[in-house]
Design a protein that fits this description.
Layout lengths: L30 E6 L3 H16 L3 E3 L7 E6 L4 H17 L3 E5 L5 H7 L5 E2 L5 H11 L23 E5 L1 E2 L10 H5 L3 E2 L2 H13 L4 E5 L19 H8 L5 E4 L12 H5 L6 E3 L7 H7 L5 H14 L4 E8 L6 H14 L3 E6 L17 H24 L5 E9 L4 E5 L10 E3 L11 E9 L4 E5 L1
Parallel strand pairs: 1-2, 1-3, 3-4, 4-5, 6-9, 9-10, 11-12, 12-13, 16-18
Antiparallel strand pairs: 7-8, 14-15, 14-17, 15-16, 17-18
Helix pairs in contact: 11-12
Length: about 450
């Protein structure tokens, strides 16, 4: 049987790999398949949809042939992601025939139905009720309250020992290259009590790492009128850090108040890890992006963060080949990267996206120049990573185990987020380890992005 497709984890640096386990169905129970594309925020949406379906008595199918209908949760961030989403819809139609489309690309239903007129329904992001209505029409529910039991934490598409925790929807920024605010709307933060209840349930169920995600994590709560706290992310991070799990912050916009998060890292309350999308370093490029054009002050902030928390690990993504980017501007980016010495770095080659204001900018960079700059940028980033990891040889660090097979244990350090960063491998004395275990190792070998170690 052909299994559901999933985004390759190396396609974009912000992807999470969806895992659909077999879900035995009782006689007469309808089964639904899910193809989850895009970023971890979309993955959380997929989990919510599947949780609702499980609560209504549906089973989950990991393959096309066993499904009564298939939901494709799409991504529409880049033109390449849109093409991938359309391909996934086509594959689901060929392999199953009953397809419901949701997610970011669903905000443009004419594009989907124009390419695939046989889809049963198209809904946009967050439209959970509309998705459920479409599933009900395609495969009516047949619940049995005495048999259909829902896990306390809902349906998870990640391993049991880590989970994404979405704290808000939407974004208030107006970056010229991005259409996320058009697709997902303005910032809407979840109540802190609801987030903490969800986090507590996850930790009680065995989750050892909470990956905090949103479109703009550091802006959490700033959409609340009459709030008591100017920056609610600070108290939320403090409260999450009291639960006993690793807490990792993703998509942190570099506002000045981020400096107040760093002491929580130094105290060990949350992981010393910041995922900040700097995007570029030249002030003119940043202005054309409609981003803050203060790269020099950003270097000062990075230095201050490191003084407060010497162990802090910084991850970022950048865009190369943005319209109007000159060789001098690109060289400024390389020089800035030399100074910043970021630990984890990814890059996008600029792409036009339908509806983005950057499409109309003059002086688009030729594709061959983008490729050359991407290669040069990643060569620089790789050299920095290699040197930083080499410096860790001989040190003792705590790691979390992700997978164990006959060859060894695949682990991550506090400096590594799942799917997007490196790994630490243990190839001796690993037989008793299980996913989710946290153990101390001594690093004895380093490569460009990965480490090897032995238990101590």
């Amino acid at each position: 049987m052909r299994r559901m497709t999933q985004n390759p984890p190396d396609l974009r640096p912000d992807l999470a790999r969806a895992r659909l386990a077999a879900d035995p169905a009782r006689p007469g129970q309808p089964r639904i398949g899910m193809v989850s594309l895009g970023c971890p925020k979309a993955l959380v949406d997929s989990e919510r949809i599947l949780t609702r379906l499980r609560a209504e008595g549906y089973a989950i199918s990991p393959d096309y042939q066993g499904a009564d209908a298939v939901i494709v949760n799409t991504c529409g961030f880049l033109d390449s992601a849109r093409a991938e989403s359309l391909d996934a819809i086509g594959e689901a139609l060929r392999e199953n025939g009953k397809v419901i489309v949701t997610g970011c690309l669903g905000a443009e239903p004419e594009m989907i139905t124009g390419t695939h007129p046989r889809v049963l329904a198209v809904t946009g992001p967050h439209q959970y009720e509309a998705v459920l209505d479409a599933v009900h029409a395609a495969a009516p529910p047949a619940p049995n309250p005495f048999v259909d039991l829902l896990p306390a934490t809902g349906v998870s598409l990640t391993p049991r020992h880590y989970s994404y925790l979405k704290i808000s929807e939407g974004c208030d920024h107006a970056c010229k290259f991005c259409i996320i605010p058009d697709m997902r709307g303005r910032l809407v933060s979840r109540p802190a009590k609801a987030i903490l209840r969800e986090a507590e349930k996850l930790v009680e169920a065995g989750v050892k790492e909470l990956l905090v995600i949103s479109q703009d994590t550091s802006a959490y709560g700033t959409d609340w009128k009459g709030r008591d706290e100017k920056f609610p992310i600070l108290s939320l991070a403090r409260d999450l850090g009291s639960l006993g799990a690793w807490v990792r912050l993703h998509y942190v916009y570099p506002y000045p108040h981020v400096r107040d998060l760093v002491p929580l890292m130094a105290e060990g309350r949350i992981l010393p890890y910041l995922d900040i999308p700097f995007q570029h370093a030249h002030p003119d490029t940043l202005k054309r992006m409609a981003r803050p054009a203060a790269a020099a002050r950003t270097l000062d902030e990075i230095a201050a963060w490191r003084r407060t928390c010497p162990d802090i690990v910084l991850r970022s993504t950048f865009i190369v080949g943005y319209p109007g980017e000159t060789e001098a501007e690109f060289q400024t980016l390389l020089d800035w990267l030399d100074e910043a010495q970021l630990d984890r770095v990814g890059a996008f080659r600029y792409e036009n996206v339908k509806g983005a204001r950057s499409n109309d900018l003059p002086d688009h960079v030729p594709e061959e120049v983008k490729e050359d700059r991407y290669a040069r940028f990643m060569e620089k980033a790789q050299a920095i990573s290699e040197a930083k990891l080499a410096a860790r040889v001989g040190t003792r660090i705590e790691v979390i185990v992700d997978e164990v097979d006959a060859e060894g244990a695949t682990c991550r350090t506090r400096a590594d987020a799942p799917e997007i960063d490196g790994n630490l491998f243990i190839d001796e004395g690993f037989e008793d380890l299980r996913p989710g275990d946290r153990v101390t190792v001594e690093v004895d070998e380093a490569a460009d992005y990965d480490l090897w170690g032995r238990r101590v």
